[in-house]
Amino acid sequence: MLKRFKFKNIPLLEALPYLFFFTASFIYFSFFADYVLFYQEKSSLFIFSSDFLKENLHQPGGLLIWLGKLLTTFFYYPFAGGLVVALILTLIVLTVSAIIRIISGNNSAVFPLLTGVALFFFQTDYRFMIYNNIGVLIQLCFFLLAIKYVNIWRGWIPVLLIPLVYFATCGFTWMYLLMMTVYFAFGKKKILFIKIAVLWSVSFLIFYFSREFLFFQTEKTLLTFPFTDLNPGTHEKIFIPFALFLSALPALSRLRIKLPARIRISESLKILSVSTLFALILISIAILRLDKKTAQYFHVEKLFYQNKFDELISYNFTHHPTNSLTIFLNNIALCETNKLNDLLFSFPQSKDGNTLFLKWEMVGEILRRGGYFYYTVGMINEAHRWAFENMVMKGHSPEGLKMLIRTELINGNYKVASRYISILKKTLFYRKEAIYFEKLLFNDVAINADRELGEKRRTRLKSDFFSITDDPYINIGRILATDSLNKKAFEYRVAFLLLQKDYKGIESELPSFSRYGFTRFPVHIEEAIVALEVLRNGTPPNLGNIRLSIDAQNRWTQYLTVFQKYGNDLKAAEPALRKQFGNTFWYYVFYR
C-alpha cells in the first residue's frame, strides 16, 4: 500500500506511476499505433448540429456513442488523438484509485494500474472503439459519485442515479449495478436486502418502461447496446469477463496484501518498484501488440484517400504488401497513374481477381472500400451505390460522405449534393473540403476544370445497366460494350486476362490498344506477346498499329539464358529467376 495522498497536492514521487502510464500511452498511440486512431476517425463522423445530437438520443446508450464520436473527431491529428486516449485511460486509473481510497481508507497504485494496463491492451486493437473505455469510465465515475455521497438523502443516491446511468450508457449500466450490489452487500445487515432489492427493482422498471413506452427497441438492444453494434476486435471474449471482474471492485478494494514483518521497504522504494514493474509491462504490451502489417495497410489507405498515388506505389515497393486490401488499393493507384499493366506483377496478385476488384459484401470492411474500383473505371452510379449502402448500414463516415458528394457532383445532381455538403460543413476538420465542393455546385465549368471530377465526368459510363456485384469482371465487359473508349476499364480487363493466363483473350485484345490511346504496349503485355510467339512457334500475333519493343525481346533472351543455365529445370532455376524476373508475367506463368 502506498502512502496516503491528496489529489490537490500529489507529491511528484507518488504521482510517478500515473505520470509514466499517461506518458507511455500518449507516446504509443501518437507515434507508433496512430493507425488505431486513423481507422476509428475514418469509421465515424461527428456533426456539430442539434439534429445530430437528437439522432443519437433516440435510444439509451446513444449519448455514449455521441460522446465517442465527438472525441474520435480529434483522432484526425495523431498528437491530439493520442492525448485523448491517454487522458481517458489515465482518468480510469485515477478513478479506480479514488474508489479504493474511499472504500478501504488506503491508497493503492497496483490494482488501478492493472486496470489501466488491461484497457490499454484492449485499445491497441484498432477495432476496439474508444467509447468502450468511455463507457467504463462513466460507470466508475457514477459509482464514485454514489459512494462518495452515499449518506445524502439517507443513502438512496445510488438508486436515484440509475435512470441517468442507463440513459447515458445502456448496456454498460450492468457494471454500475453490479458494483453497487457488491458495495451494498458489505453494508449494514438491516438495510442490505432492502437496498439491493430496490436497486434491481428500479432497474427492471426502467427497462420495462423503456421497452413498452419510450424507445420501442428489442430487449437485446435495450440490455446490451452499444456493445451489440460495435466490434471490440479480437477481445470480445475477454472484455466481458474483464468488465465483470472490474465490477467486483468494491470487494477487491477491501483486500490487503501485507509484506512479512521482516521485510522493510521504504515508501519511495515501493513507488519506484511499482513504476518500474508497470513500465516493463506496458513496454512489453506495446511491442507485442504493435501490428506492423495493419499499420502499413492504414498508411496505404491514408495515402489513397489523399490521392497520393505515386507515393502509395513507392511505399508498397519498399514495404512488400501481403494484405489483399492493400494490393486492391495499390492496383487502383496503378490504374489511376496508367501503370497497371506495367507494374501489376511487381506486387502479389490473386489469380481469381480479388486483388483487382472486390465482391459485394454487407458485413466487414469491403463495402466501405469496394466502390473505389467502380469510381476508377467510370461506373459512377455503382460507386455511389456502394457509398450509400455503407452509409445506411454504418452511418456517415468522412470518406463515404465525400464519395457521395463527388458522385452527385459528377452526375450533376446538385440539389442532392448540396445536402451532403451541408453535412460535411458541420464537421470540424472537413469544413475546408466542404467549402470547396460548395463552390462547384451548379457550376459545370468549374467541375469540368477540376482535375479529378472533370476527368471522371468525361470518362463516366454514359449508358447505365444493372451491375453484377458477385462477378465484377462481367461489369468490365459491359462497360466496354457500351463505352468502347474507356481506357481504365480496358486496362482492368487486360490485367484480369493476364492473371488468368488467358493467352487467347490477350491475343484478341492486342489490336485494340492503339484505339484506346496507347502508343506502346505495357510491359506485361509485351511479355505476354513474347510468350504468344513462343507458343505459336515464332509466329507473331496481330499487334495492330503498335510494334513490340527491342527491350522486351532482349529481356526474354536474358530470361532464357538464366533458365538454360540450370538445365531447363524449373525448380532449380526458380531462385535465380525470382531474383531477376520475379516481377514479370513470365515468372507468374511458370510459378504462380
Please explain how this structure is put together:
With 592 residues, the protein is mainly α. The chain has three domains: 12-254 and 265-289, no CATH class; 303-459; 508-591, no CATH class. Helix content is 68%, strand content 0%. The chain has 34 helices and no strands. Helix 17 (309-319) crosses helix 18. The longest helix is centred in the N-terminal third of the chain and has 27 residues, at 78-104. The radius of gyration is 30 Å and the shape is elongated. Residues 1-10 have low confidence and may be disordered.
Average pLDDT taken over every residue = 90
What oligomerization state is this entry in? single chain
**How is the main sheet built?**
none
Number of alpha- plus pi-helical segments: 34
Gist of the model:
This protein has 592 residues and is mainly α. Helices cover 68% and strands 0% of the residues.
What are its keywords?
592 residues, mainly alpha, 3 domains, 34 helices, 0% strand
Question: Could you outline the blueprint of secondary structure elements for this entry?
Answer:
Layout: H1 12-32, H2 34-43, H3 50-55, H4 62-72, H5 78-104, H6 110-123, H7 130-148, H8 157-160, H9 162-169, H10 173-185, H11 189-214, H12 219-224, H13 236-247, H14 249-252, H15 267-289, H16 292-305, H17 309-319, H18 324-336, H19 340-343, H20 366-369, H21 371-376, H22 380-394, H23 398-411, H24 414-425, H25 431-440, H26 444-449, H27 451-459, H28 472-482, H29 487-499, H30 503-509, H31 523-535, H32 550-565, H33 570-581, H34 585-591
Helix pairs in contact: 1-2, 1-5, 1-6, 1-15, 2-16, 4-7, 5-6, 5-7, 6-15, 7-10, 10-11, 10-13, 16-17, 16-18, 17-18, 22-23, 23-24, 23-27, 24-25, 28-29, 32-33, 33-34
